User: Which sequence fits this backbone?
């Protein structure tokens, strides 16, 4: 969180609002950090806080609270290099959590108070919206790849075997799941094996439960959880995990659902699990808005179709 101040001459004008916002963008980040997003949380005027729109109000000292999202400049540059090597042109850097939220939250969701948890491969990002604005954001360095590695180590499997076995796992441990999961045969042994479904679920439940616990602690520390009347939305490839909504509900309470893409994002109708594409779809939406394109369907639709269907 950051607070910016600006002196006012009798009443707050558009120029005052523009000036204080511009000053808030001068975040003073260290050289190794890069600004990814900034969200206005509310204004204050002469000690009166929580003002949504202070224009025309009388006062002398205007304040603006903002949420600043920043990341490692080295990691951002690495991502740009990878994209360039893949012959992709990068025009702007966006925070993955914000991208996912833009693709799955309606204006009503953002007003009601909704948390998006995007479970990616290398990390999990989360973004909370309330009163129509982003009020909190964060990243935990745990994702689906870590879960796969846990399974690999626990049962002495290869990464490909662990990835396949993970599809049969449940985020909730249940004594009723007494069967066994077949492990694909390896190229070296040429034979298949099985592992206990209970043992598999125990490993998965421990990792995902830990992840949700970390996010819960962060939300509690900032007093965010009680503002989430709209519930929890899960996106990303990790949201495919069986019973993950049940585990999230037990950890956070309230309504939990798997993300659905908002109207206007086309080209993914035949995909089995569109929620795993929330981040890239949201990035395209943000770029479309920032570039001033008039149509929500072009070029978003064409890009999505080309990207996901090879058309």
Assistant:
């Amino acid at each position: 969180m950051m607070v910016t101040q600006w002196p006012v001459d009798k009443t707050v004008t558009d120029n005052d609002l523009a000036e204080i916002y511009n000053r808030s963008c001068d975040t003073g980040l260290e050289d190794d950090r890069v600004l990814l997003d900034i969200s206005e949380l509310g204004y204050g005027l002469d000690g009166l806080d929580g003002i949504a729109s202070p224009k025309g109000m009388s006062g002398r000292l205007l304040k603006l609270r903002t949420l600043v999202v920043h990341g490692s400049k080295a990691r951002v540059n690495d991502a740009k290099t990878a994209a360039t090597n893949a012959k992709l042109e990068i025009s702007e850097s966006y925070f993955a959590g914000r991208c996912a939220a833009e693709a799955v939250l309606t204006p009503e969701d953002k007003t009601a108070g909704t948390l998006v948890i995007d479970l990616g491969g290398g990390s999990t990002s989360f973004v909370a919206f309330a009163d129509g604005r982003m009020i909190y954001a964060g990243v935990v360095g745990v994702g689906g790849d870590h879960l796969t590695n846990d399974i690999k180590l626990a049962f002495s499997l290869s990464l490909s075997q662990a990835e396949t076995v993970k599809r049969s796992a449940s985020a909730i441990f249940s004594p009723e799941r007494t069967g066994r999961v077949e492990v694909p045969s390896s190229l070296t042994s040429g034979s298949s094996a099985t592992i206990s479904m209970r043992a598999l679920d125990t490993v998965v439940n421990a990792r995902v439960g830990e992840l949700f616990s970390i996010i819960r602690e962060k939300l509690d520390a900032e007093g965010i959880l009680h503002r989430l009347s709209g519930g929890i939305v899960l996106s990303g490839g990790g949201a495919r995990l069986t019973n993950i909504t049940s585990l999230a509900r037990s950890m956070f309470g309230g309504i939990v659902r798997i993300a659905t893409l908002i109207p206007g994002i086309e080209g993914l109708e035949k995909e089995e699990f569109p929620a795993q594409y929330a981040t890239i779809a949201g990035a395209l939406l943000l770029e479309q808005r920032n570039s001033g394109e008039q149509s929500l369907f072009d070029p978003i639709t064409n890009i999505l179709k080309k990207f996901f269907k090879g058309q």
In short: The chain has two domains: 1-73, 94-311. The chain has ten helices and eleven strands. Residues 294-300, 305-311 have pLDDT under 50 and may be disordered.
